[in-house]
Amino acid sequence: MPLSEEELRLLEQMERALVEEDPKLASTLRGTAFRRSARRRAIVAGVGFVVGVVVLMTGAVAQITPVGIVGFVIMLVSATVALTALRGQQTAVGPDPRAAHPSRGFTVIEGGRTGKTRRTRRHHHSSHSFMERMEERWRRRREDGGF
Fold first, then answer.
1. Residue from 96, 94, 97 nearest 34 by CA
2. Can you tell me the distance from the alpha carbon of 72 to that of 108, in angstroms, rounded to the nearest whole number?
3. How far apart, in Å, are the Cα atoms of 108 and each of 9, 15, 28, 58?
4. Could you give the CA distance from residue 84 to residue 90 in angstroms, rounded to a whole number?
5. Residues 83, 6: contact at Cβ < 8 Å?
6. What pLDDT digit, counting tens, does each position of 15-55 carry?
7. 76, 57, 77: which is closest to 67 by C-alpha?
8. Residue 112 DSSP code
9. Which residues contact 100 (CB under 8 A, 6 or more apart)?
10. Is 123 left (phi over 0), alpha (psi -120 to 50) or beta?
11. CA-CA distance, 58 to 144, in Å (whole number)?
12. What are the pLDDT digits (tens) for 87-112?
């Protein structure tokens, strides 16, 4: 079950607090071992993908449908493992803890309803990220009580 927006924000705050309080522990937890294992999984998944292509093509050329299906499944699983490993490697690197002042690491999380506010229609420009637009939509939905 995916985490809610508020839970994700809380986790990010806790991570930032850990980095600020004990950067050595945070770097150890993120560590190079995790990146190394993620890279190894991505390479193995790449090799598995190539094997899947070979099995798929063998099944297609020999006109053996089950072999082709097995090759496709191998490719699908390998691609999923590779993408998961690469995403994990990117999040393990994370932001540079020295980039921001410690007091700027915390943000206020809006909680509860502050009453009905007049809803203004804003035009979203392409400069806003997808997540910002989704957060704004979610915020408006909560304010209107439209669950």
1. 94
2. 47
3. 10, 15, 28, 57
4. 10
5. no
6. 888 778 877 777 666 666 667 778 888 899 999 999 999 99
7. 57
8. S
9. none
10. beta
11. 57
12. 876 655 554 444 444 444 555 556 55
pLDDT for the residue numbered 11: 84
Q: CA–CA distance from 116 to each of 36, 134, 141, 142 (Å)? A: 51, 20, 11, 10
Gap between the Cα atoms of 4 and 12, Å rounded: 12
Q: Is the pTM of this model over 0.85?
A: no
Structure tokens at 117: 């506010």
Q: Which two tokens stand for residue 125?
A: 């420009």
DSSP 36-58: HHHHHHHHHHHHHHHHHHHHHHH
- For 5, the token pair is 């927006």
Q: Report pLDDT digits (tens) over 43-52.
A: 999 999 999 9
**Domain ranges (residues) in the chain:** 5-109+121-144
- Between CA 32 and CA 92 the distance in angstroms is 9
